[in-house]
Amino acid sequence: MKIRSLTLACTEVDLKRLPQAQFPEIAVSGRSNVGKSSLLNKILGRKNIARTSKEPGKTRTINFFLVNDRFYLVDLPGYGYAKVSVEMRKQWKRLILEYFETRESIGGVVQLVDSRHPPMKDDLMMMGKLIEEGRPFVITLTKADKVSRGKRQKTLKILREHIGGVKLRLLADKRPETGSPGPESESGLPVLFFSAKTGEGKEALWRWIASSVGIE
Hints:
The protein is of the alpha/beta class. It has helices at 36-44, 86-102, 121-133, 152-162, 202-212, and strands at residues 6-12, 25-29, 62-67, 71-75, 106-114, 137-142, 168-170, 189-193. It has one domain (6-212): P-loop containing nucleotide triphosphate hydrolases (Rossmann fold, 3-Layer(aba) Sandwich). It contains five helices and eight strands. The longest helix has 17 residues, at 86-102. It starts with 5 loop residues before the first strand and ends with a helix.
């Protein structure tokens, strides 16, 4: 997708003050330090549109980026470990869960999981919430450049086991040839490998986002 315009439309901690539901929203969710800011910078083609840091918990607000005057990319606070108080971490988690429960304009969620490790308890809780609320989501396995091609089937097998044996549908950057069934025409929970370093997964993720917000 070509980024013709990009605006930071809102930075908030209060759900009641979020923008009106004028555009569909794609939320980006994940644990602290899983690579949310790096992913946003990569897919948007910007170096510092989202601030990155080796210190978990850098994103502490809900940030709305208006893309091409068509839809919002919503950068949610990272959940899990961060160098803040236990109460603050609980507050961030409540904020995210309430957003998933109440925001009617969510078109889909990019749920990040570190490809080097099995999903953690908080990851499973978030995915369970998305399923419960009927929110479409794509599991995005970050830092894929650190996982060899030979180990990826094992990574997917472990992921599938942790989420209860749900069938997965692997999305790839290269489109299937016309007339060929290909993985993207099959059923299952969509999943892709993503690397902010190499750009792997960028095209597949954009196709999923475009489809989720109704852009051809």
